[in-house]
Amino acid sequence: MIRPAVKICGLQTVEAVRSILSLPIEYIGFVFAPSKRRVTGRQAAEMTGELVREREQGRPAPASVGVFVNPEPEELEEILKIVPLDVIQLHGRESPEYCHQVKERFGTGLFKAVSISMSQTASPADLVLPFAGSADAILLDTYDPVHGGGSGKTFNWKVIPDYLELTRAAGMKLIVAGGLTPDNVSGLISAYQPDGVDVSSGVETEGQKDIAKIKQFVERVKSR
Ligand SMILES: O=C(O)c1ccccc1NCC(=O)[C@H](O)[C@H](O)COP(=O)(O)O
């Protein structure tokens, strides 16, 4: 079985970034949207500097993902002037056209979040297929009415197979987020085999990233 890519989201300190650089993590996320995990461009620039240095030394480093909710293009432009983001994650109500423009203008990868709620009325096809060609991955997350993400809550995983089929048919990856933890991620992977898993709250203790929990999460994703 191919092991899913890991995205650890909501990094806020250079120390935390340094301490996970030796782990097999494909993406690390920096939240620029309003959130208790929000970072400034300057803070993110310091953290991505660590990634750049690793690559300069010939070592692999995770790709950097900037998380935004309904950003104006000017905000993206200001951040990208000082933070060399590899991927832009759009976590709000951004249209497929907007995603396409962002990808064209900034030349980054693009993850589009799709929020799953109990009262979902739109079909998975309507939520996914319009992003074919503009998003590299669909990131399924639990609907959060306040911030848009980072809720620490799971959604009903039974919807995942429909999204997997649609994203694969459309040439996109599927990343699953929302309430993942070291304890539930193995069950998710054996049941659904997503292309990636994304965690924030589940690897924190008292609101701070907990390196032991991150290690445990990564081990459980990558172990056979
Ligand atoms: O993490 C946040 O605080 C956040 C705020 C606003 C929009 C998105 C946010 N996070 C994006 C992510 O990719 C999180 O990893 C994802 O929502 C899962 O979070 P969690 O349920 O806490 O593991």
UniProtKB/TrEMBL annotation:
| SUPFAM superfamilies (UniProt xref) | Ribulose-phoshate binding barrel
Instruction: Quote the catalytic activity from the record.
Output: N-(5-phospho-beta-D-ribosyl)anthranilate = 1-(2-carboxyphenylamino)-1-deoxy-D-ribulose 5-phosphate
The residue ranges of the N-(5'phosphoribosyl) anthranilate isomerase (PRAI) domain are 6-219
Q: What class of enzyme is it?
A: isomerase
Q: Name one Pfam family in it.
A: PRAI
Pathway linked to the protein: Amino-acid biosynthesis; L-tryptophan biosynthesis; L-tryptophan from chorismate: step 3/5
Which InterPro entries does the record associate with it?
Aldolase_TIM, PRAI_dom, RibuloseP-bd_barrel, TrpF_fam
- Similarity section: Belongs to the TrpF family.
Q: What is this protein called?
A: N-(5'-phosphoribosyl)anthranilate isomerase
